[in-house]
């Protein structure tokens, strides 16, 4: 069975070469982009490309683009006007290291660079165009930004479980779904495989966010690389506050099983993605 994390050295090398320039904003972009992280989204791009019969090397620009969008969102999430977090991935947040204005511009720079990077993929033009549209929709007000808007509106309020799930489907799930679909697009996969990839992503994204909520309660800052207990500090409704710790764990397991079942269409070729979903459900950071 292929370990989808085996692509990490190639992903890291590509990201290190992605940002040119010696100005302070370029430095801030590199600081955040090369600052570590799980690289869940680029790994998903490459693995779905592989199991759909494509060449993962040709999909690397797609993988890097998704990680750029994800990193930009983290920079902006940490700003004082958003979550106001001083720590990210065990290091000072971008705005702490470079100042708020430069951090804002670094996030903007990564977002725009993502779409420039998509166009560098050695793939047919129609696939590149579809990838641009898919990532833009996932990142915009009908996707990740829409989820962040709901998240801000939810602060200090007792929201329903349905509202919380819709928020997370957009804020976390949309970009994970885009990553899986970009891999399919790069490979020219048929609709049946794309539908299965989207179903896998929906289950994985929900499980991922629920585990994040659990770790915010059970984890510690040193292990997480970001402030533990921030949800309580910001008076946010989470799966733990709404379902209890045991209920949240059961939901994480249920969504993980949903993700795993969605891969049946791929047979044994998707064993690595099954194992990946299980590992994310059991993670401690």
Which SSEs are present, and which pair or pack?
Layout: H1 8-16, H2 24-33, H3 40-51, H4 56-77, E1 87-88, E2 91-92, H5 94-98, H6 100-118, H7 125-139, H8 144-154, H9 161-187, H10 191-218, H11 221-224, H12 230-233, H13 239-261, H14 271-281
Antiparallel strand pairs: 1-2
What would a concise description of this structure say?
The protein is an all-alpha fold and 285 residues long.
Spans where pLDDT lies below 50 across 5 or more residues: none
Counting H and I runs of at least 4 residues, what is the number of helices?
A: 14
Mind describing the biggest β-sheet?
2 strands, antiparallel
| Rg from alpha-carbon coordinates | 18 Å
- The amount of beta strand, in percent, is under 5%
Quantity of strands, as a count:
2
Residue share in helices? over 70%
The ordered string of helix (H) and strand (E) elements is HHHHEEHHHHHHHHHH
Q: Name the structural class.
A: mainly alpha
Strand arrangement across the biggest beta sheet = 1-2
